[in-house]
Amino acid sequence: MGGFVPLSTVDYPGELSAVVFLQGCPWRCRYCHNPHLQPRAGAQSVSWAAIMRFLERRAGLLDAVVFRGGEPTVQRGLERSMGEVRNLGYKIGLHTAGMYPGRLKRLLPLLDWVGMDIKAPAETYGKITGVHSCAGKAWTSAALLVKSGVACEFRTTVHPALLGDDDIRNIARRLAGWGARHYTVQKFRGEGCIDPELVMHPGPTINEEALHAEMNSMFATFRMI
């Protein structure tokens, strides 16, 4: 485990949650603000046994447990761990970039809510992730998630040097066409980012007013944060 937060009000909408951070991510997104979680083994580690003891004591006081990373679906023991937490009565949340659609499909019956990062339109995914064969897997996961009926929110992080207004429109139209109901655009934040070019040169701004007007008609909820 890469870390543990015993109480969060922001990682699962409307619920008090504990958050488990898992090590490992095969992508190298230029704007990543948790690069210490990219390696499969980190400098700090929290034992799963200690987390379970905490969750047993807090059962009935917390609503949910959220698994995030890194990329939590890297960990092959994730399904088992989610099952153990669900047996304590918690709702289960997942933050993922959808890089393993097969694993995500197996997890869906255990999940109550998913926050999924959609990085870019399919043709420019590698520009952000550094992995040029990843777009198909991510978009396949997005389609699986919408079709499953599991409550979910899609999110795109925007650095104006990497994505523009038309890219956001492209992403939004595809998601809305599948029936996605909740979409959030997250502005780049420099804290923790190790790419000096992005931190020093944020690039041109996006047209927030125009995007709000368009997106509000496409989704049940649209946020720009």
Question: What can you tell me about this protein's structure?
Answer:
It is a single chain. With 225 residues, the protein is of the alpha/beta class. It has helices spanning 48-58, 78-86, 101-107, 125-129, 135-148, 165-178, 196-200, 208-215, and strands spanning 3-8, 17-21, 64-68, 91-96, 113-117, 151-158, 182-187, 221-224. It has an 8-stranded mixed sheet. Strand 1 (3-8) and strand 2 form a beta hairpin. Helix 3 packs parallel to helix 5 (135-148). The two termini are 28 Å apart. The relative contact order is 0.13. The model has no long low-confidence stretch (mean pLDDT 94).
Structural class: alpha/beta
Could you give the order of strands across the largest sheet? 1-2-3-4-5-6-7-8
Number of contiguous helices: 8
Total strands: the figure is 8
Give the termini separation: 28 Å
Major beta sheet, specifics?
Answer: 8 strands, mixed
Give helix % range: 25-40%
Q: Which geometry do the CA atoms define?
A: globular
Mean pLDDT, as a whole number? 94
List segments where confidence is low: pLDDT < 50 over at least 5 consecutive residues.
Answer: none
* Cα Rg: 17 Å
Strand content: 15-25%
H/E element sequence: EEHEHEHEHHEHEHHE
